[in-house]
Design a protein that fits this description.
Length: about 450
């Protein structure tokens, strides 16, 4: 005797495209309304939520008892009849339960809607069941895909650089040391050295999306000890302007893709109507930024001359008011606050061909033209109080020829946080790592 073909699973988001009839849905229980004559279950899966209905009578008594005992978060499999009904507020359809199998029984949830961020992070796998949380990571996926597509279309090479290093990638500050057989290794602060090596290797244009590590004891909303860094490096540039043009193009393509795919849901869940930014993004030299910020009533008290968070917020507000733009490149940073490998323009050693990109009041990226002349690099290493002997392998990249080049590094979680108007990268990092958090 031929066995009937089992029903395939249907994602809840796909139910609306089906005719009335038998379906199988699987997910977790969000709510149960247990009434005398009828029971309602809100079932959620990775694509959405739907209403299940079970009339209570002698024929459904066993199923009714199972539904009455269901706990929030239990995973179930349901087969039943799909019926379109415009009276149903949730999607205009419901599934009449035919059979219900409890796959796993859940305990009472240890977190609630009003739980603190730290409590929610303790139970991150439960916290991530929220549709808002899932949307965050769908947006992240779309951003990465849009950028990667542009890179590939433009002939870039994707790299996966090592995260264990024999020496510091930028400086000895904020380094994690790792025992490594008979010696000590360091977790990479960025792929900076290896991005530049690719230029000496003749790769021309490269990108990487990967982890980076900073032993930074900060507890701010925008810092983490491990984060995902978006990096790109290109050869044969004339100045940092070429890097900024690449950078703003990537972000514009990413935002366009996010709006097309998730714009309505972002507005529904986060109350934000995203807009495609106009090109080019505003560019303001660092010295001018300081004047604008001071004119707005904020005095930067940092001794090194760098911008502080309030200055970033003020210049962003200024650009929004005067140009209607959410992004601004702050250019020509002082050489005193930039790494040894940032190029200083001819006749202006006090500044660098570099920039910070500020998005909605927060810095998300640093980019620059790199110094490609080995003698200049050696001099700037010494000036920064570093030992050229510790960077011999890096300096070799330049002793055997390298073209003029530049690039940027950008924090992915910050971009998503600012795009969705969230208060912390703890919300936009799958599993956050900070000075006091190594679990889950």
């Amino acid at each position: 005797m031929t066995q009937p073909t089992p029903l395939p699973r249907t994602l809840i988001a796909d139910l609306a495209s089906l005719p009335d009839g038998p379906v199988k849905v699987q997910g977790w229980v969000e709510t149960v309304r247990d009434q005398k004559r009828v029971q309602f279950v809100i079932l959620r899966d990775e694509s959405g939520a739907a209403q299940l209905v079970n009339p209570v009578n002698d024929d459904t008594a066993e199923t009714a008892a199972t539904i009455s005992a269901l706990m929030h978060g239990s995973f179930i499999t349901v087969t039943g009849d799909l019926k379109a009904d415009e009276r149903v507020k949730l999607g205009g359809l419901e599934v009449k339960v035919g059979s219900l199998v409890v796959e796993t029984v859940a305990k009472d949830s240890p977190i609630a809607d009003d739980s603190s961020i730290d409590k929610r992070l303790d139970w991150r796998f439960l916290d991530l069941r929220r549709p808002e949380a899932q949307l965050i990571f769908r947006v992240q996926t779309t951003i990465e895909h849009a950028m990667r597509q542009h890179w590939i279309d433009e002939g870039f090479i994707e790299l996966h650089t090592p995260k264990l290093m024999a020496t510091a990638s930028e400086s000895r500050a904020e380094l994690f040391e790792v025992p490594y057989f008979e010696t000590t290794a360091y977790l990479a602060q960025s792929p900076q050295l290896f991005k530049q090596m690719a230029q000496s290797a003749g790769f021309g244009k490269i990108f990487e999306i990967g982890p980076a590590f900073r032993a930074d004891p900060s507890f701010t909303s925008r810092h983490a000890t491990e984060f995902t860094s978006i990096d790109s490096e290109i050869s044969w540039i004339d100045s940092h302007e070429d890097v900024m043009q690449l950078h703003e193009t990537l972000l514009t393509k990413a935002l366009t893709a996010v709006i097309e795919r998730h714009g309505d849901e972002i507005e529904q869940r986060f109350g934000i109507r995203l807009e495609i930014p106009a090109l080019p993004f505003p560019r303001i030299p660092h010295a001018e930024v300081k004047q604008i910020v001071e004119a707005r009533g904020h005095t930067i008290e940092r001794a090194d001359g760098d911008l502080d968070p309030e200055a970033e917020r003020q210049i962003s507000a200024h650009v929004k008011e005067t140009a209607g733009h959410d992004f601004v490149f702050v250019t020509e940073y002082p050489s005193s606050v930039r790494p040894f490998y940032h190029l200083r323009p001819e006749g202006r050693p006090e500044v660098t061909n570099s920039y910070d990109l500020i998005y909605n009041g927060v810095e998300i990226s640093t980019g620059a033209q790199r110094e490609h002349r080995v003698d200049v690099l050696e001099a700037q290493i010494v000036e920064k109080g570093m030992n050229p002997a510790e960077l011999e392998e890096y300096l070799d990249f330049f002793r055997y020829g390298v073209p003029p080049h530049g690039g940027f590094g950008m924090g992915l979680a910050r971009v998503v946080m600012l795009m969705l108007g969230l208060g912390s990268i703890r919300e936009t990092t799958y599993l956050f790592r900070g000075p006091t958090r190594l679990t889950p």
